[in-house]
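Model it.
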Amino acid sequence: LMSLPESKNMKILIIESYSQAETYRDFAIPYPTYFHPSSDDEVFQWQNKLRKMKKLFLFSFAGAPRPNNEDSIRSQIINQCLDSGIKCKFLNCASGENKCDNPTYVIEIFQRSKFCLQPSGDSSTRRSTFDSILAGCIPVFFDSRSAYEQYIWHLPKNYSKYSVFIPEDEIKDGKVNIGETLSRISEEEVAEMREEIVKLIPRIIYANPMSRLETLEDAFDVAIEGALDRVEKIRLEMEGGKSTKF
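Modeled.
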């Protein structure tokens, strides 16, 4: 569809972008989470609850291994989690009793974790990234395409404010111990990142379509504003006689 001449001026909102930054045609927007508030108060109450939540685990991972994918680091991540004992909580999405399908169970684990590991899965991005933000858990990325090159409207450009990055090659080569790396982050830094995560929540959730948030902008609002700003920028460039790639 996007390669057709008739589609060259289209801008597409999608959960994972495949465009290069210089020639955006498709724009990544957050995956839908389990929380669709009907009022600002519901969002504020959720944020306040997260600020008071006691963390039981240093980090956690919810997912399944990818034994048929040679490039996947999930097996190494799972092994490191299991070797970390009580510091890490592993939710095995490949087990017979798949608790990953239970939103209450998943969110509760993320709420109780300081950091949530977000390795690539079937593609670079994961819905789990937004589940972790919703739960006040700091995401840990291993591939810049998982978030930093994707959600240009919804997430801060300074990714160190809300996340941790560990290059996946260092995991593959056994050069990094995840637990030790995360343990070296000071409590003050963790508190600052957690607060940044909590503040991000309105921008990554989709409010109940039967209602409307009053003072907050949700993911839909942010996406539409981004698209309109893009149109306005192109219009001004055209009026200025500049050659613009659509």
